[in-house]
């Protein structure tokens, strides 16, 4: 699905990722771990086409990212759902509107789609908070709303940056079970996390692969977790 070939990226001349080569297979469940500041968010941004490599190649479904025009990038990005670390809601819009926003932007908010929006809010157990505003949500509710918004367009790839970073263990496991459910429906899932316990829990249920980022390199970890 996504192939890195000697891909590099840095900010203002400071390298973050250097000559990274790896493939994310369609249908896989991946965790990305690594020290704070090692470049996990940067790697996720390259996987979601929010950034392009400065050297080497990142190919999406066989197409080199740097050769895609703006329209093609926009189309490609609709195949990906992103849960950002800080969720990134529009605070003056209700939770329902925030979750529906990808549909509106894609020009697909039809009366028929309203049922999908309600179903999605039920899936993340937020039906009763649909008319609330993002600042009124708890940490776990925010993460679940962000997850619902990320899957609104049925993406092939779901990317989540520390989706359980600000919630307790029980809520973390609920969010994880939603991500596992998506993977069982055939979606590829990529999660950046510091939470090794979460990875152990996931590995009891899915065959998750762990990518470790350190010193600019991303490597598939062994079975030590
Ligand atoms: N927009 C930016 N401009 C300049 N430097 C940046 C920018 N974004 C990130 N960096 C730097 O790049 C490095 C990697 O950052 P990144 O956010 O990818 O790491 P991370 O592993 O996700 O960190 P954390 O676990 O703390 O969230 C850090 O040194 C960071 O300060």
Automatic annotation (TrEMBL):
The keyword ATP-binding applies. It holds the Pfam family ABC_tran. PROSITE patterns: ABC_TRANSPORTER_1, ABC_TRANSPORTER_2. Coiled coil: none annotated. This is ATP-binding cassette domain-containing protein. Keywords: ATP-binding, Nucleotide-binding. The keyword ATP-binding applies. One of its GO terms (molecular function) is ATP hydrolysis activity. InterPro entries: AAA+_ATPase, ABC_transporter-like_ATP-bd, ABC_transporter-like_CS, ABC_transpr_LolD-like, P-loop_NTPase. GO terms for cellular component: plasma membrane. It comes from the Bacteria. Residues 2-225 form the ABC transporter domain.
């Amino acid at each position: 699905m996504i192939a890195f070939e000697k891909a590099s990226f840095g900010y203002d001349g400071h390298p973050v990722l250097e000559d990274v080569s790896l493939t994310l297979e369609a249908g896989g469940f991946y965790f990305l771990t690594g020290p704070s500041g090692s470049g996990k968010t940067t790697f996720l941004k390259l996987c979601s086409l929010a950034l392009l490599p400065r050297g080497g190649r990142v190919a999406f479904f066989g197409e080199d990212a740097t050769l895609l025009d703006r329209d093609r990038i926009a189309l490609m990005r609709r195949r990906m759902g992103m849960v950002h670390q800080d969720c990134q809601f529009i605070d003056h819009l209700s939770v329902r509107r925030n979750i529906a926003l990808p549909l509106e932007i894609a020009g697909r908010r039809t009366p028929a789609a309203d049922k999908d929006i309600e179903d999605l809010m039920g899936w993340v157990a937020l039906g009763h908070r649909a008319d609330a505003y993002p600042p009124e949500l708890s940490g776990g509710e925010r993460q679940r709303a962000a997850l619902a918004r990320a899957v609104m367009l049925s993406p092939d790839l779901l990317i989540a940056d520390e989706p359980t970073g600000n919630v307790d263990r029980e809520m973390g496991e609920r969010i994880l079970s939603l991500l596992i459910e998506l993977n069982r429906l055939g979606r590829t899932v990529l999660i950046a996390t510091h939470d090794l316990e979460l990875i152990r829990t996931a590995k009891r249920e899915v065959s998750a692969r762990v990518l470790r980022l350190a010193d600019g390199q991303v490597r598939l970890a062994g079975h030590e977790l």
